[in-house]
Amino acid sequence: MNINVIHGAALKQATPCLVLGVATDQLTAPLLQKIDKALDGALSRATSAQEFSGEAQQTLLLHGNRQLAAERILLIGLGKEKDITLETLRKAGATTINQLRQRRLTDFSWIPADSPLHGLEVEAMTSAWVEGLILADYRFEQYRSPDPKRSPSLQQLTVLTERKKEQAATETAVRRAESLCRGVILSRDLVNEPGNVKSPIFLAEQAQAIAAEVGLECTVLDRQALEKEGCGALLGVAQGSVREPRLIVLHYRGAGDERPVALVGKGVVFDSGGISLKPGEKMDQMKMDMAGGATVLGTMLAAALLKLPVNLVGIVPAVENMPSGSAIRPGDILTSMAGRTIEVLNTDAEGRLILADALTYAKRFNPREVIDLATLTGACIIALGHHAAAVLGNHNGLLRQLQKAGETSGERCWQLPLWDEYAEQLKSEVADLKNIGGRPAGTITAAAFLQHFAKDYRWAHLDIAGTAWQEKGSDYRPAGGTGFGVRLLIEHLTRSLD
Fold first, then answer.
1. Per-residue pLDDT tens over the stretch 336-354
2. 168: three-class secondary structure by DSSP
3. Where are its TM segments located (predicted)?
4. What's the distance, Cα to Cα, between the start and end of the chain in Å?
């Protein structure tokens, strides 16, 4: 979608459709009164007939006449002003896309709010609405044949500011949303790629392409380098597949010599469960088990496009978990990069094994904090459903910061405890620890396992198993990969600058 920001009068804007957001207590705003007058009272009649009241996501389409340059006026309800949040505006953007698609419109104009609503800054509101528009318009159709019956994607958006002095700020907000959404869309695309395409080498090549585009440093460790580093846990998971493993390391330097934030993302490009084979039902969805890694790559891209004044290290251990004659077996013992031995009781608990080595590798960068993201446990879906990620870690301040960033970005997370008692479930009789702690508190014991390898720095773990993938689309989140975490992390990094 091409987006232009211009200055002009709403009633003189020639467009197939002019879109406005309307709060329930702003039905008599000056612009709406002008539109109502130009349409001979059509809006007043619709409100009197209770066809439109401005309730959240309610819509009203009015057709223009000779007094209006716009062919149509589409009003999107926002609810009561006191209840409007940035998430309200993202959903309004998604509602806009759905309405336009139903009418097969590909070109439209939108007038952002020109004054704060419920204390929200105008730039933030504009950015949130554009996020909703762009992300709702996303489709993964690289492998589909063209179909004229399919609703077309949006081609052109004109953002109209009626006051000249607002144009520069609106332009800034729109470009920020575009850069942020680039990262989310990259993450979605990578998650949605099929398993026959998405090898660890493919993931490394995508990282190298990102680095070349926006000026990141990229290092890719192959099997020989991983053996030299002693990454026995990662290599143990990888040994069942003919596809070679990789450890992807990206650097973004936006803050001189400051200590970096390290982002670590699980990159299991396909997870069959290994010898502990998963059920066949929905195994096709296990192409998304690298969503944590995709989020890290998307965040690195967005941070570079936004020119955030921070230093970042992105680390993605990329493997495929397959059953074969060379695969690890339940009962095998692996030696991690940290030197700790791990009794593997379930080969389907592989994500924590590759993250153990990645978290150890992160220590060499002297990070000020480390955040890992992983589709780690089905237990997280049981606990929180598909509405929030679980967040755990060793620093309550960092966990609270992530929760606040989640509320603002619309990518919520909820803290679970990580008490010492949970680590008792991981004690092994034959090794330093085992890779599962039994059925009770599965999300927590998985984090407790990771904590063994994250003791030397401030650390948070995000279990995104329930939020990284949707079977059915909703709002601005499509079916398939959601790109969850990119907007959350960018919001967290931005807040850390204040």
1. 999 999 999 999 999 999 9
2. helix
3. none
4. 32
Is residue 314 within 8 Å of residue 286, measured between CB atoms?
no
Q: What percentage of the chain carries pLDDT values higher than 70? A: 100
Spatial contact of 190 and 290, defined as CB atoms under 8 Å apart: yes
271 is in an annotated binding site: yes
* Catalytic (active site) residue 34: no
Average pLDDT over all residues of the chain: 96
Q: Where are the domains of the chain?
A: 2-163, 181-495
Angular region, 84: left φ>0, alpha ψ -120 to 50, beta rest? beta
Helix-helix angle 291-306:486-495, to 10 degrees: 50
Which helix (H) or strand (E) segment holds residue 36: the answer is helix 30-38
Is 352 labeled as catalytic in the residue annotation? yes
Closest-CA residue to 428 (of 360, 353, 344): 344
CATH fold of 2-163, please?
Leucine Aminopeptidase, subunit E; domain 1 (3.40.220)
pTM flag (> 0.85): yes
Among candidate residues 352, 434, 477, 487, the one labeled active-site is 352
- Residue of 80, 101, 103, 278 marked active site: 278
d(CA 34, CA 267): 54
Q: Does 222 count as an annotated binding residue?
A: no
d(CA 5, CA 50): 34
Secondary structure tally for the chain: helices H, strands E? 15, 20
Query: Tokens for 213?
Result: 């585009």
Q: Are 154 and 1 in contact (CB under 8 A)?
A: yes
Secondary structure element (H or E) that encloses residue 122, with its range:
helix 122-136
Q: State which CATH number among 3.40.50.720, 3.40.50.1980, 3.40.190.10, 3.40.630.10 fits the domain covering 181-495.
A: 3.40.630.10
Alpha-carbon distance of 15 to 160, in angstroms, equals 11
Q: What are the pLDDT digits (tens) for 131-185?
A: 999 999 999 999 999 998 888 888 999 999 988 888 999 999 999 999 999 999 9
Is residue 198 annotated as involved in ligand binding?
A: no
Separation CA 54–CA 118 (nearest Å):
16
Average pLDDT over residues 116-124: 87
Helices (H), 269-377: 291-306, 351-362
Residue 222 and residue 317 in contact, taking contact as beta carbons nearer than 8 Å: no
Q: Is 289 annotated as a binding residue?
A: yes
**Alpha-carbon gap, residue 377 to 446, rounded angstroms:** 8
Chain centroid to CA 89: how far?
17
Q: Hey, how many other C-beta atoms are within 10 angstroms of the C-beta on 211?
A: 23
Query: What single string gives the DSSP state of each residue in 336-363?
Result: -TTS-EEE-S-TT--HHHHHHHHHHHHG
pLDDT digits (tens, 9 = 90+) for 58-75: 999 999 998 899 999 999
Residue 451's H or E segment, with its range, is helix 442-451
2-7 and 156-161: which strand pairing? parallel
